[in-house]
Amino acid sequence: MSEETTPLSPAVGDPVDLEREAALARLFEVHYSSMLRLAVLLGADDPENVVAEAYYQIYRKWRRLRDAGAAEAYLRSTVCNLTRMRIRHLQVARKHVENPPSDVVASAESTALLHDDQRVLIDALQQLPARQREALVLRHWLGLKESEIAAAMGISCGSVKTHTARGIAALTQAMEARR
Predict the structure, then answer these.
(1) % helix / strand / coil in the chain, to the nearest 5?
(2) Are 160 and 153 in contact (CB under 8 A)?
(3) Residue 154: how many CB atoms within 10 A of its CB?
(4) What pLDDT was estimated at residue 6?
């Protein structure tokens, strides 16, 4: 009994899959470092994992994106949501630990991204409630408009204004108290 053999050749990919791969590679190249900084500024303890998960989620949901141009906004929103979920998870986990860690050690990436003159500001920023911190980072670090911030955070524009104003007031008060 003879079997017909065919040489192994790389499978020709679906053009949609090839387009997705190329678009995600460009998205990664252009926005990875800014998404990493965003996760760090929002308080993620493992920013690399948060950003990697965000890229994985956009990869899985690529075909459902209505507009490929919205990928950056979707990625930013995903980083915000994943960071928020990770912080909540850690808060719950720490409540159930008998001996909580005494010193929080910043990751090497966090340390490398922050200069000495920014540490006081970052410390004050980390003391803000999560929504205020997110609104301020998205507004003043990324320079997003209120409508873009509202979309990223999943809240109304009025709430963005409220969180931003309260965050600025609390940050100003904290900075003045440290002087």
Answers:
(1) 75, 0, 25
(2) yes
(3) 11
(4) 47
> Alpha-carbon distance 2 to 10, whole Å?
25
Question: Cα separation of 4 and 51, whole Å?
Answer: 47
In the chain, beta strands by DSSP E: none
Cβ proximity of 164 and 136 under 8 Å: yes
**What is residue 50's three-state secondary structure?**
helix
Q: Which two tokens stand for residue 46?
A: 């493992």
CB 80 within 8 Å of CB 152: yes
Q: What is the CA radius of gyration of the chain?
A: 21
Burial class (CB in 10 A: 0-12, 13-18, 19+), 92: exposed
| Token pair belonging to 51 | 């950003």
Which residues in 96-175 belong to E strands, given as ranges? none
Asked if residues 45 and 86 have their Cβ atoms less than 8 Å apart, the reply is yes
Q: Is the pTM of this model over 0.70?
A: no
Q: What is the pLDDT of residue 178?
A: 67
Q: Are 149 and 139 in contact (CB under 8 A)?
A: yes
